[in-house]
Amino acid sequence: MPPIDKVLLGTAGVVGTSILAWRTLFPWIGDDITFLRKSKEARAITDKHIADGKTIVDLFEEDVMRTPQKSFIIFEDRSYTYELVNDQANRVGSLASQWGLKVGDTVAIMIGNEPAFIWTYLGLQKLGIDVAFINYNIKKKALVHSLKSCDAKVLILGKDEDMFLAVDEIRNEISETPVYVQGKDIKHSGDYLPWDDLLLAALPVQATKSAREGVTYETTSCLIFTSGTTGLPKPVIVCHRKVLAFATALILIGFRERDILYTTPPLYHTMAGGLGLMGTITAGGTMVLRRKFSARHFWEDVRKYDVTYIQYVGEMFRYLLALPQHPLDGMHKVKAVLGNGLRQDIWEKFQTRFRVPWICETFGATEGIISTTNLSNRVGSCGRISPILNRFDLIPKYIIEVDPITGHPVRDKYGHCKQVKRGGSGLIITGIPKVMQDFKFYQGDKDMNEKKVIRNVFMDGDAYFDFGDLVRLDNDYFIYFMDRLGDTYRWKGENVSTCEVANVLSGLDFIQDANVYGVQILGTEGRAGMAALHLRGDVQISDILEDIYKHCSDNLPGYAQPLFLRFPKDMKVTATFKQTKIEFVKEGYDPSLITDPLYYRDDSRKNYFQLTHEIYDQIRIKSKL
């Protein structure tokens, strides 16, 4: 591969020495240069750590030696220095050393957003023990499955009462797993063990590096679970190499030792526990950690702690925009926000009102082997896939044509896939190097791993990772997330993106959020569009139905205009502020199952009208004809 400078000079030579002419012909080239420069800086830091044989716990211990009294975690108005967190981590390591576990064994932690999560993880890492980050919101079958699928030898449980009750409910099904409980006065018994007393009595002696001898960059550091929206949660293998790769996201956007990160997403999630925590440690910075996201206290915290970087996920910023305007909106020291799931319909509103200079939307997957980041402030974009970037990226990314219903790539007569041209949309994939083609994405059976691989894409024998997401490529090579493959539905022979319809609906001032999905109508092909709308303030539904009808008619093709509307009092989202659709899809448009106000579209009268049991029966009868 030729050096980047020669390629860029060669490109410039095509149009002569005029910078103006160069930028006129290739208006996007500056974005490529910026990304390549910043990426080179970030990779250089990571490559040096790897060359020196450093893992994340090694970097943490160096932070402790360099700045022992510096604030590492700020939580509920208390500062936890690097030295204090290290002492607690050493106590965890001392306890774990008594369990007789070896490198490669797994300990599950089910702890909320608090410093104990962090020092427990680091203490186990000091011994080379894998750590499974258990989602503390799951219960029953999903919880049992998560603990068994990661083969947890021990479970360390946080002090939240709801977590204890969730585990207590399934205790018989994990009876062979020792459970240590924080924050409860529990005597030694067959069911539970008191963690706090044991930790207090443990010596804060730092384990020697020989205690984690055998750990390589391909060894598992932690297991982070998928959301379970397409089935039960699956444990994603995060090896030590990927942990260091997570850290580059913050480094890429300029986060350094002097900076302060505000983290409210759950630590069991990749954004917070991966990019946020690992990035803070690698830079030697400070993390302001909040137990749960609070719109009311958000900017108050940011100002109080002089936050310079913010993490976000999903619809978090929509809640901030719903707050009444305040004279202090925009008064802060924030340099950038980093996250994913920020929908285009509120992007500029958020950036303008709160004076956020830089929004860095990312795209990736916990089990993926590469990600993209929008470093150009391009509204709505989550990164770039350009010919130049692909030429210099060790793992190039492509967008291929796909049938959004079957999920299968469209192939030519030779059995190979077709790349999407600029202006088109399709399935995003990334190459899997030959040295990684036996790599497991999930801890589990081989079939589950194979489902994430597409083979014989551009030539026989090649392999690509399937993100399972549809994206659009604009004329300047910026990409825009459209939908999860399964979220796109087909109606009247056309493919409908739920995300695009939701963006249009959210353009109405009285709509706080729109959750769009497809529902089955008996006797028809495909799925009809339906939207669950969350309204602002005390808006009367009867006053806005005609406006919704007209807005959809003016901004959406006929096949994409929702046939049904429901108005739930509260919009359901996951712990990471992603919309939930499973229950909505199951209930369909059946008024016997739905207690929310329910309406149907009547094109003859150009409005939406209440969907009664009688109308519902008429639709069903008509659809059978």
Automatic annotation (TrEMBL):
Domain AMP-binding enzyme C-terminal: 500-578
EC class of the enzyme, as a word: ligase
Any one GO MF annotation of this record: long-chain fatty acid-CoA ligase activity
InterPro entries registered for this protein in UniProt: AMP-bd_C, AMP-bd_C_sf, AMP-binding_CS, AMP-dep_synth/lig_dom, ANL_N_sf
Occurrences of domain AMP-dependent synthetase/ligase (ranges): 60-387
Ligase is among the record's keywords: yes
Keyword Iron-sulfur: no
Catalytic activity as recorded in UniProt: tetracosanoate + ATP + CoA = tetracosanoyl-CoA + AMP + diphosphate; a very long-chain fatty acid + ATP + CoA = a very long-chain fatty acyl-CoA + AMP + diphosphate
Cellular compartments per GO CC: endoplasmic reticulum membrane; plasma membrane
GO-annotated biological processes: long-chain fatty acid import into cell
Pfam families on file: AMP-binding, AMP-binding_C
Keywords: Fatty acid metabolism, Ligase, Lipid metabolism
E.C. designation(s): 6.2.1.3
Homology family: Belongs to the ATP-dependent AMP-binding enzyme family.
Protein name: long-chain-fatty-acid--CoA ligase
Originating species: Potamilus streckersoni
